[in-house]
Amino acid sequence: RADRLEYDQLSDQATGTGNVRIKRNGNRYEGSRGAVVTETMEGFMDDMRYEFYQNGSHGEASRAEFADDAHSTLYQTTYTTCRKNAVDDWTPDWIIRARQLDIDNDEDIATAQSAYLEFKGVPLLPIPPVGFPLSEKRKSGFLPPTLGLDNTNGLEVTAPYYWNIAPNRDATISPTMMASRGVNMMGEYRYLERDYGGTVKTTVMPDDRLRESDRWGLAAKHKGQLHTEAGAVNLDLTVNRVSDDNYWRDFNTLAFAGQTAQSTTPRLLPTEFAANWGSGYFSSAVRTQKWQVLQDASAYIVQPYERLPQITSRYARINQSGWDWSIDGDYTRFSSIPELTGQPNADRSVVWAQLSRPWIAPQGFITPKLQLHTAAYQYENASYYSSTSASSTVPSFSLDSGLVLERESLWGGQTIVQTLEPRAFYVYTPYVQQYQLPNYDTGANDFNFSSIYTENAFSGHDKVSDNNLLTVGLTSRYLDRDTGTQFARFGVAQRLRFEDQGVTINSSASSAVAGVSDFLVGGAVNVNERWAFDSLLQYNPLTNQSVRSTVGARYSPGEYRVMNLAYRFQREKSEQIDTSIQWPLRDLWPGNAAENPASTGRYYGLARTNYSLYDGRMVDTLLGLEYDAGCWISRLVLQRTQLDKYAAVQSVMFQLEFVGFSKVGISPEKALATSIPRYQPLRGTPYTPDRAGLYD
Fold first, then answer.
1. How far apart are CA 464 and CA 456, in angstroms?
2. How confident is the model at residue 605 (pLDDT cuts 50, 70, 90)?
3. Phi/psi zone of residue 154: left (φ > 0), alpha (ψ -120 to 50 degrees), beta?
4. What is d(CA 615, CA 570) in angstroms, rounded to the nearest whole number?
5. DSSP string spanning 128-185?
6. In this structure, what is the dihedral angle of CA atoms 266, 267, 271, 276, given to the nearest 10 degrees?
7. Which pLDDT does position 539 carry in this prediction?
8. Which residue has the higher pLDDT, 413 or 452?
9. Using CA atoms, how far apart are residues 328 and 318, in angstroms rounded to an integer?
10. Average pLDDT, stretch 588-605?
11. Strand ranges (DSSP E) for 452-502?
12. What pairs with residue 395 in β-bridges?
């Protein structure tokens, strides 16, 4: 379209003057004068304004030259994703000014020449002649640099390069300059095929000035599947290795495979290989497991036992004329340092058989079960025990039963279903002497609503507890009559032990005595979509004291709004108060709440405190501020994390996100997600018009 439009049929060129408009692939171009060859879309436009459909970006240029339908070059141009206001003298908060901007709409890439980024009218930083995306499509090139600052490494500057090798393979190379240490080279390689995929992460610091040594780390995760005539074999490989014991203190850039950000054992790095196969009722697996222990002189860790190898198999049938039965086998070679563990290395063979007959009805259930557990050991030598072998065979009987009673009730004015579910669980396991047996993988079960209804007080295969006890409990649930959604749950449970327990996990552990156990009381209430509460109390009726308790509350009235409060107590061990919040600051003053929870021009407060009443000190602290301006987002977070009794790390994280273009600084989003339950990252979604509306 144009005020005046001429068409030359011989050259197939259309020339327009005055308010010229051209639409290409949903993108809009407007200028004072222009011409295009209609067949190839080759042409030009002067004094141009443009808007790209992919991300809502727009700008101006003195001239645009169109090579074809997808490629163009803009001269003396600007670029931004900030939505234009109706004000005549409006200036975007951020804008790219470039001598030349090359546009590739096929790849959704723009490449700026002689360009710089301007923020709030102030030139912020030059932009190298590398491409930046116009959409979410991947492309090789330099990523925005990140900045970090803490009290140990000093200023950190990272300049990552992304390599889009193929649609199913990519790599990121991230050299990082640490002011106090030197250069740390980080790399990540990802791959995905039909039958396998994985990630490899590495870091190398040739000369750490603080430690005066070379530093490196490796974390890899691979999953795959082999197709054989006998069926598919699933493969799983995990590798974690670092150069030295202090690596976990000095670097948090390497996320170890198989560990979460809140892992309680950052000093135990596993390397494992597993192969699993199953066909019908039979399954089998082979696993090897080794450990690297990062030692600390103030908190020494005995190296866990390595499995070299572990071979397991299982055959199980369900509902064979009403009967369920299974047989599990386990052979493991355990290896460690006997001088530190106080036990010999050994080969252990286990056979565990189970037979049960469940009767299940809508009104309740009853399930008798028989179990037989056999373990045999072949020691590496007889220096720790009088023999080179040992074995044990332990039978067990249990009877689990329960009722499910229902009635209609009222909850907040609506009709719901209330259940009353009494449960009784009896177990008898005779005493079998096991003090002469080593302990390779066995631990005491936590005392909670799940473990209180189990036959064995221990996990693992080295110890089977003797029991003659009855567990009784009562649970009540409040459910939506139509959907089954649970509004509330309350429960109580207690054990009545008829005989003292003789088997303990080790010689220094105390055994459970005859009588009543601690009392468990727990509940969870979802008052509505905003409020949620949960609590658990372990109470000792003999001492009239609580042994352990947790109380939690969450208030979340909408998007980007959450408050969390938790109290955790364990007698003579710990007592903590944990609070966290994400909230729009404007909502804190009456009359300022906006209708849109993610409206622009809004500040968001972020905070987390974890205070130990037992130690009388702060364990973790986080304080942050986010600002959403629509086309850009800023984040500032201060964090202090206690590493141990004497050491802590303080970090400052600041990031500017220019929506639709790039991010500058170090991202605090991972720290926020791990510190604030139900944290929602702000997403600066640019204005995207209806593509159909871009055509007249």
1. 6
2. very high
3. left
4. 13
5. -S-EEESSS----EEPPPEEEEETTTEEEEE--EEEEEETTEEEEEEEEEETTTEEEE
6. -50
7. 96
8. 452
9. 15
10. 59
11. 458-459, 467-480, 486-497
12. 372
Residue type at 482 in one-letter notation = D
Q: Two tokens at 640?
A: 């202090």
Site of tokens 């004072």: 32
pLDDT of residue 502: 93
Q: Identify whether the C-beta of residue 585 lies closer than 8 Å to the C-beta of residue 559.
A: no
Mean pLDDT taken over the chain:
88
Amino acid at 473: G
pLDDT for the residue 347: 96
The one-letter amino acid code at 582 reads Q
Coil/strand/helix, residue 669: helix
3-state helix, strand, coil in the chain (%, to 5): 5, 60, 35
Residue with tokens 């497991």: 289
% of residues, the chain, pLDDT over 70: 93
Q: Is 233 helix (H, G, I), strand (E, B) or coil?
A: strand
Architecture in CATH for domain 4-139: Sandwich (2.60)
Dihedrals phi, psi of 674, to nearest 5 degrees = -80, -20
Q: CA-based diameter of the chain, in Å?
A: 106
Would you tell me how many other CB atoms lie within 10 Å of the CB of residue 156?
20
Nearest to 3 by CA among 24, 31, 25, 45: 31
Residue 359 has pLDDT above 90, yes or no: yes
| Average pLDDT value for residue range 337-357 | 94
Q: Are 248 and 301 in contact (CB under 8 A)?
A: no
| Alpha-carbon gap, residue 29 to 16, rounded angstroms | 13
pLDDT tens profile 93-143: 999 999 999 988 887 888 889 988 899 888 887 887 767 777 777 778 777
User: Closest Cα to residue 139, out of 100, 167, 173?
Assistant: 167
pLDDT at 693: 40
Cβ atoms of 74 and 64 within 8 Å: the answer is: yes
Four-residue CA torsion sign, 106, 109, 111, 116: positive
Beta bridge partners of 315: 282, 327
Residue 37 is encoded by which pair of tokens? 């060859």
Q: Which of 261-270, 389-398, 408-417, 641-650 has the highest mean pLDDT?
A: 389-398
CA distance 688 to 102: 22
Q: Map residue 451 onto helix, strand or coil.
A: helix
Give the start-to-end residue ranges of the domains of the chain. Answer: 4-139, 160-301, 564-696
Degrees, nearest 5: CA angle 257-263-265:
95
Distances (CA, A) of 389 to 236, 382, 392: 33, 8, 11
Q: What's the rounded Cα separation, in Å, for the pair 541 and 543? A: 6
Q: Could you tell me the two tokens for 490?
A: 């309350």
- pLDDT tens-digit map of 420-461: 999 999 999 999 999 889 999 999 999 999 999 999 999 999
The values of phi and psi at residue 670, to 5°, are: -65, -45
The residue assigned the tokens 């390397």 is 271
Provide the pLDDT for residue 531.
Answer: 93
Residue 482 contacts by C-beta under 8 Å, 6 or more apart in sequence?
Answer: none
Handedness of CA 261, 267, 268, 272 (dihedral sign): positive
Q: Could you tell me which of 692, 665, 662, 683 has the C-alpha nearest to residue 79?
A: 662
